[in-house]
TrEMBL record:
It holds the Pfam family Histidinol_dh. The gene is hisD. Its cofactor is Zn(2+). The lineage of its organism: Bacteria, Bacillati, Bacillota, Bacilli, Bacillales. CDD domains: Histidinol_dh. This is Histidinol dehydrogenase. It comes from Halobacillus naozhouensis.
Length: 419
């Protein structure tokens, strides 16, 4: 392999500082509840409004939206919900006999109280709320608490509010950052305590999710967006460039990587990116992202390229490869895979139906993205009768004797017929 462009390695000394800041925020919210949350909203977010977004505010805000925008959001919610329902249908409860008198199985049980964090960002992202909330609704959550920063005219953007409402959020709060995660995890006078928190966010949100894990469940810790475009000699450099920049514009620290088996396509893609960036607004994060984090790798063979992709374990893996479906099974580390150059990652970001909350920073080695399964529990059950009692009691009695566990031996032996 050969780097035609390599990321500028920037030392990040923020982790220890971020950890301490977040720890202090969580401790303060636990101790002081709403008072602490309001203080952080005022000092960090410059928000002086009530924490809860009531129904009257929601309705007034939504009334500002055009019918066209509402229709877009409704379509997003419908497609995400439909895909989540199809996933849920694959999770089936079962019960069967595993030997005479031994019946076992599992049930699919919804998590009752879900917390959804929806970032504010530079622009209102119409799909962000539905991506986190709709699967929870499909799963059967009874209470869905949504938090989003009040960074639009003193409140949450109307389009974000409508998306949350349509998706099934039961409580909506204009709270951002680590204080929102702390409030949902531990509860305050205003914010209900939840059982699991899902959704992406900045480094403070990610660190807060890490620190509250155990008190509550979390979906995953997702960092800035990532995309890897894997191309061959038949790829279109303009489409490669466009797909890289689409993710680069999310964040200055977003990673956009091209791996190509064609030096010519790789070099042409670099030139196309330069042309496109001239047309981007000067304050677009894409400029800094591509300069500092962008990479272009030339590889001499398809197999070497596949190995590189699996090693990088990217969030979005887009195959600009002819007959990409034929090699799909060779990839095993990715958040979501996009087959063929016209299967744009943007479609998934917006409306296709798969979830765009996906693992980053090589987490795709051990987890997938947010899905309806995050919001259910697979809980086992068993019923032992007749011959099963005798069989399992004898085994458990002998094993407990070997292990030296007197209580375990007693509990098993007391059920033997010759006890």
């Amino acid at each position: 392999m050969e780097y035609l462009k390599q990321a500028i390695k920037q030392e990040e000394n923020q982790s220890a500082e971020t950890e301490k800041i977040v720890k202090d925020i969580i401790s303060n919210v636990i101790a002081n509840g709403d008072v602490a949350v309001k203080k952080y909203e005022e000092t960090l977010s410059k928000s002086f409004r009530p924490l809860k977004v009531d129904e009257d505010e929601i309705e007034k805000s939504i009334s500002l939206l055009s019918s066209e925008v509402k229709e877009l959001i409704e379509r997003v919610v419908d497609r995400i919900s439909t895909f989540a329902q199809a996933q849920l249908d694959c999770l089936s409860p079962f019960e069967q006999e595993f030997g005479p008198g031994i019946r076992m199985g599992h049930k699919i049980i919804p998590i009752e109280r879900v917390g959804a964090y929806v970032p504010g960002g530079r622009f209102p992202l119409l799909s962000s709320g539905p991506m986190v909330v709709a699967p929870a609704k499909v799963a059967g959550a009874k209470k869905i608490v949504a938090c989003s920063p009040a960074n639009y005219k003193g409140g949450i953007h109307p389009a974000v509010l409508y998306g949350l409402k349509c998706s099934g959020a039961t409580h909506i709060y204009a709270i951002g950052g680590a204080q929102a995660i702390a409030a949902m995890a531990h509860g305050t006078e205003s914010v209900p305590e939840v059982d699991i928190i899902g959704g992406p966010g900045n480094r403070f949100v990610a660190e807060a999710k890490r620190q509250v894990f155990g008190k509550v469940g979390i979906d995953l810790i997702a960092g800035p967006s990532e995309v890897l475009v894997f191309s061959d000699e038949k790829a279109d450099p303009k489409k490669c460039a466009a797909d890289l920049l689409a993710q680069a514009e999310h964040d200055p620290n977003a990673r956009a990587i091209l791996v190509s088996t064609s030096r010519s396509i790789a070099e042409q893609t670099i030139q196309e990116i330069k042309k496109y960036l001239k047309e981007f607004s000067s304050d677009s994060p894409a400029h800094e992202s591509w300069l500092n984090m962008g990479e272009v790798i030339y590889t001499e063979s398809l197999e070497e390229g596949i190995n590189i992709c699996n090693e990088i374990a990217i969030e979005h893996l887009h195959l600009h490869i002819k007959d990409s479906r034929s090699i799909m099974d060779k990839f095993h580390n990715y958040g979501s895979i996009f087959l063929g150059q016209d299967s744009s990652v943007v479609f998934s970001d917006k409306v296709s139906g798969t979830n765009h909350t996906l693992p980053t920073q090589k987490a795709a080695r051990y987890t997938g993205g947010l899905w309806v399964g995050n919001y259910v529990k697979v809980a086992t059950h068993q019923e032992i009768t007749g011959e099963g009692v005798e069989y399992l009691s004898r085994h458990s009695t002998l094993q407990s004797e070997v292990e030296g566990l007197e209580g375990h031996r007693l509990s098993a032996a007391v059920r033997l017929t010759d006890h």
